[in-house]
Amino acid sequence: MIVSSDAALADEVAGALAFLGLRHEIVAPGELATHAGEADRWSAVLLCSSGATSTALKVLEDWENGPPVVAVGLEQSIPDRLRSVHARLLGRVERPLRHTQLMPLLGKLGKFQVGSRDVELFRSLVGQSDPVQQIRGMIRRVAPTDSTVLILGETGTGKEVVARHIHYHSQRRDGPFVAVNCGAIPADLLESELFGHEKGAFTGALTARKGRFELAENGTLFLDEIGDMSLQMQVKLLRVLQERQFERLGSGRSMPANVRIVCATHRNLDKMVADGTFRGDLFYRINVFPIEMPALRDRREDLPLLAAELVARLEAEGQPSVRFTQDAMAAMARHDWPGNVRELANLVERLAILHPGAVVGAQDLPRHIRVHSQPGDGMGSEPVVPVFSTRPEGVATDPRPCAVAPAQDPAAFGISAAAGALDDPDFGPGRGLKDYLNDIEEQLIRKALAESSGIVADAAKALGMRRTTLVEKLRKFGIDRLGFATET
């Protein structure tokens, strides 16, 4: 719940939550009391500066078993007499909203609520690229149904993350989410793992044991790497999916299978069906609603945000942090990432151990990534800090984050110029991250010079950089400041 009477501030907060894939609703301070009886509906209340009225604070104080509270841009202190609000106050977030501010609070939220949903949900599907937006849209459509979902994609792309999103946004969210890796269990043990067994069903079965289908009753069963399942086991699984019932090994009693099935694989099932290594009837049974996960190299523009999210995860866990310079991020953007997001996560953790609390440049990256660095990538030694942007005036799309930004005031950074560069119709092969960063930087410099009438010192102050740095950039882009001077 976003409590605010300021439409612009509410829109900024809503954009940040939408970027993280979180559902939200804006509530006016005067209407807060009408929602006080819906404690189970809200996982948190984001109390904005414009919403911290005396009436709203009293409602929050009297809200029995109310949700945790996050103060957003709240300059005034909350009165000490509001003990219930203070007890539920997770922390404060300053404006402009930053990804690294929100992620630790969301981590606290998961620990605050007993039986809360997996915090990993708040750390996934990060990005605003078209592929990620499409995945979110597909999840919203299929989650409320009970249809079988098949998630395809390379290893490390986050297939289980999507499966968990589907479960937690479905009508089975209160039931269990049970995952089983079909490729990690020997073929002769997979049947017992899925369906369970009775005592004495085979040598070593000393007691009866429930299978994953029973454990997932009224919930979701996630069959990961289903392409590695043996043909014999495929036949048995197909029968369960068709009849919606199964038998434990060693038992003649049928049991209902009231579960939703979500499958995933990195293999090409179409080719496996053609080769005879995967049953066509099972493929068509599970391929009701396919979702294909994009590789990281197909959404390179999300790389800075993904890196920031992974750093925020380390900080939330109390581990060392790390930051990346723009030349490091440019080199990383040229890497193909065969291990995808998992490879990126391992890199961030490794660098955080080697360079705790430091700013990592291209020279600090592993050799196979460092080789992608090029002269002119760097824009100084300042770290890359993704920020959330508000929607530019007249733009009817969702708020989008800046791809990368120096640690400075985003108002000076120029959100509309960044959004315009990212919407370049020439986007595609041959136009990498460095080209877009250069385009954005040049546009912002020209805008600052125009607004300062060509006075370099004033333009540098507006851009949040040193005058000497701006002079170097004018030389780099061939910009003549005199062209922006106005006669007096």
Quick synopsis:
This protein is an alpha/beta fold.
Descriptive overview:
By secondary structure, this protein is of the alpha/beta class. The chain has four domains: about 110 residues, 3-Layer(aba) Sandwich (Rossmann fold), CATH 3.40.50.2300; about 160 residues, Rossmann fold (3-Layer(aba) Sandwich); about 70 residues, Helicase, Ruva Protein, domain 3 (Orthogonal Bundle); about 70 residues, Arc Repressor Mutant, subunit A (Orthogonal Bundle). Helix content is about 40%, strand content about 10%. The chain is built from 20 helices and 16 strands. A hairpin with a 6-residue loop joins strand 11 and strand 12. Helix 4 crosses helix 12, helix 12 packs across helix 14 and helix 19 crosses helix 20. The longest helix is centred in the last third of the chain and has 19 residues. It starts with a strand and ends in an 11-residue tail after the last helix. About 10% of the residues have low confidence.
Rg of Cα set: 26 Å
CATH architecture of the largest domain: 3-Layer(aba) Sandwich
Q: Spans with pLDDT under 50 lasting ≥5 residues?
A: 113-123, 387-429
What about the largest sheet?
Answer: 5 strands, parallel
How many beta-strand elements?
16
Helix content: 40-55%
User: Mean pLDDT, as a whole number?
Assistant: 80
Which CATH C-level class of the largest domain is it? Alpha Beta
Task: Estimate the strand proportion.
Answer: 5-15%
What topology, given as strand order, has the largest sheet?
2-1-3-4-5
How many domains make up the 3D coordinates? 4
How would the global form be characterised?
Answer: globular
User: Remind me, CATH topology of the largest domain?
Assistant: Rossmann fold
End-to-end separation: 52 Å
